UniProtKB/TrEMBL annotation:
This is Adenylate kinase isoenzyme 6 homolog. The keyword Nucleus applies. It catalyses: AMP + ATP = 2 ADP; ATP + H2O = ADP + phosphate + H(+). ATP binds at G19, G21, K22, S23, T24, R115. The keyword Cell wall biogenesis/degradation does not apply. Its EC number is 2.7.4.3. SUPFAM superfamilies: P-loop containing nucleoside triphosphate hydrolases. One of its GO terms (molecular function) is kinase activity. It comes from Aplysia californica (California sea hare).
Length: 177
C-alpha cells in the first residue's frame, strides 16, 4: 500500500455506484474515527470545479483536474475519508486503501427511485453496478491490495463495514507510529 511518512492518519476512498451507501458509510466512519469527511461533489460545487451539466443524467460534469488541485493540500496531510462514486482519476499517492461498495440491483433500484432519479439515470446506474464498472476501474487504477469490495445492502452490513474499516485504521495507526 502506498503510504506517506508525514501523514499522521490514513486517507480512505469510499467509492461505488450512486445509491450504494457511500455517503452514509463515509460520514459515519468520519464521525467514529475523527477523520475528515470529504464529499467530492460538494467540494466541486463550492470550488466551482464543474465543467457543465449533463441534462440526460441530470448531474454536473466534474472538472477532474480542478478537483485534484482543490483537494491536493488536504489529501497530502492525510486523515480524510473521501466520498465519490468513481475514484480512478485520483492520484494513487492520495490513498492508503480504497473501498468500493456493492449493492444488490433490486435494492439499488429502490434506493434510486426513492431519490427521484429519472429512468435513464436509474438504468445507467443499475448497469454500472451489474457490470461492476466502478470496482473494475478502481482495480485498474490502484494496486490490487489497496482495493476492497464491500457489500452494502443492509444496516447490518453497514455496521460490519464500519467495524472492518475501523479495525484497518487501528492497524494502519499501529504500523505508522
Amino acid at each position: 500500500m502506498a503510504s506517506v511518512p508525514s501523514r499522521v492518519a490514513p486517507n480512505i476512498m469510499i467509492a461505488g455506484t450512486p445509491g450504494t451507501g457511500k455517503s452514509t458509510l463515509a460520514k459515519e466512519l468520519a464521525l467514529r474515527t475523527g477523520l475528515s469527511y470529504v464529499n467530492v461533489g460538494e467540494v466541486a460545487e463550492q470550488a466551482e470545479c464543474m465543467d457543465g451539466y449533463d441534462e440526460e443524467l441530470q448531474c454536473g460534469i466534474l472538472d477532474e483536474d480542478r478537483v485534484i488541485d482543490e483537494l491536493e493540500d488536504s489529501m497530502s496531510q492525510g486523515g480524510n475519508v473521501l466520498d465519490y462514486h468513481s475514484c480512478e482519476f485520483f492520484p494513487e499517492r492520495w490513498f492508503d486503501i480504497v473501498f468500493v461498495l456493492r449493492t444488490d440491483n433490486a435494492i439499488l433500484h429502490s434506493r434510486l427511485t426513492e431519490r427521484g432519479y429519472n429512468e435513464k439515470k436509474i438504468e445507467n446506474n443499475i448497469e454500472s453496478e451489474i457490470f461492476q464498472v466502478i470496482l473494475d476501474a478502481a482495480k485498474g487504477a490502484y494496486p490490487e491490495e489497496m482495493v476492497h469490495a464491500l457489500p452494502s445492502d443492509s444496516a447490518d452490513q453497514l455496521e460490519s463495514n464500519l467495524d472492518r474499516i475501523q479495525e484497518w485504521i487501528e492497524m494502519w495507526r499501529h504500523q505508522h507510529t
